[in-house]
Amino acid sequence: MIDILRRRFGLLGRNISYSFSKGYFTEKFKDEVFAGNSYENFDIPEINYFTELVKNNPDLKGLNVTIPYKEQVIPFLDKLSKKATLIGAVNTIKFTKNEKLKGYNTDYYGFKKSLKPLLEPHHKKALILGTGGASKGVAFALDELNIPYTFVSREAKENIINYDLINGTTFDNFQIIINCTPVGTSPNTEACPDLPYDFFTDKHIAYDLIYNPAETQFLKNAKERGAIIKNGYDMLIFQAEKAWKIWNK
User: Fold this and answer.
1) Cα distances (angstroms) measured from residue 69 to each of 28, 139, 241
2) Choosing a second label site near 229 at 20 to 30 A (CA), which of 125, 165, 184, 192?
3) pLDDT band at residue 99, thresholds of 50, 70 and 90?
4) Is 22 a catalytic residue?
5) Torsion over CA: 141, 191, 132, 89 (sign)
6) Within 10 A of 40 (CB to CB), how many other CB atoms are there?
């Protein structure tokens, strides 16, 4: 039986007072079954503070990782899971019994599980807005679902198009549009990715990894044209529970 007493967990990130994870796990730990567990935010200004954080908190058992450290934290870890290695981003860290740090990615799992129920045969290809750590987990999930995708960024690079190239033909060819950028989060909730929203139809899925606000301007614009919309809340719950399993295995 797992010893659940006096175990500390937390979230690594920057400017994370809004944290979903802290609220979620704090609520979870109110159940007497989890008595003794605690969860806190570790808000650091840059990734080089991570080593000191670990040294000063020897009783930590696990961390979630959020923007902007999902990729930056990797060199500080002792080992990566196979999927985290393939994805190239980490959002979960397990402190092992031999005091090693092992990185995992549960973002891909949460995204895949939340998107799958929405998929219809005509949802054949996806546009991924953004190229950060979160987008890598999304891309990995799409690979597992056999859905081809293209990345979109402000600057075109190899295998990446820029927003200026998106038009009606793009929307004909890509039926799933996924926002992996922070555009639309508080306090700039009226902002949205620079897309020609009139080309959304009821054959499209608009998925936003943002969960606060629950309906971003991106989602509102897509919804007005009949698209199926989904925010990142369920994805976060699924990935959080997956992280919990990893910390306890």
Assistant:
1) 25, 18, 20
2) 165
3) confident
4) no
5) negative
6) 16
Give dist(CA 153, CA 131) in Å, integer.
7
User: Alpha helix locations (H) across the chain?
Assistant: 20-28, 50-56, 82-87, 107-115, 133-144, 168-173, 217-224, 233-248
Which residue in the list 22, 70, 102, 112 is annotated as catalytic? 70
Tell which residue, 144, 146, 149, 113, has the closest CA to residue 128.
149
Burial of 191 (0-12, 13-18, 19+ CB in 10 A): middle
Report residue 156's pLDDT band, with 50, 70 and 90 as the boundaries. Answer: confident
Opening angle at CA 126, ends 123 and 127, nearest 5: 145
Is residue 133 within 8 Å of residue 89, measured between CB atoms? yes
Question: What tens digit of pLDDT does each residue of 115-140 get?
Answer: 999 999 999 999 999 998 889 999 99
Question: How many residues comprise the chain?
Answer: 249
d(CA 106, CA 160): 24
Structure tokens at 76: 């500080």
β-sheet bridge partners, residue 160: 151, 157
Amino acid at 38: S
